[in-house]
Design a protein that fits this description.
It contains seven helices and two strands, in the order ααααββααα. By secondary structure, it is mainly α.
Amino acid sequence: MQIVLLLILTIAAVIFIFGTWRALKMSKKSVALIEKYENDKKNPALIQEIFDALREDFRLNKILQQHNATLDDIKILHRKLMKWGDFRKYNRYVPITSFFNVTTLKYLLEHKNDDAKSLTEKMMNHFHI
C-alpha cells in the first residue's frame, strides 16, 4: 500500500513540476516578445513569432488544432486586442500575453467574432489589469 501511495505522490510531483516548467517557459517567451516588440508593435513578424510559439507548445497547439486556427485568426485577434488594450502593465501586455495562456487562448478562439472591446475587457479582467 505504501508503494502505491509513494508512486502516486511521485507521479503527482512530476506532473506538477512539468506544468510549472511549461508555464514558466510560456511566460518567459511572452515577456521576451513584449520586450522585443515594445517599440515596434505593428511589425508583422510579431504575429508570426506568436503563432510559431503557440505551435511549439503542445497544449496551446492542441487548442489551435481544435479551433482550426490559422495565422490570419491570430492576426485578426491581435488587431482587435491592440485597439483597446495597447498598454503595458508590468510584464503583461494584453495583445501578446493573451495568446500564451491556455484559458485565454481558448476564449479568444471561441469568441473570435466578438467585438474588440468585449474581448479586450475579458482579457484585462483575466490578468487583473
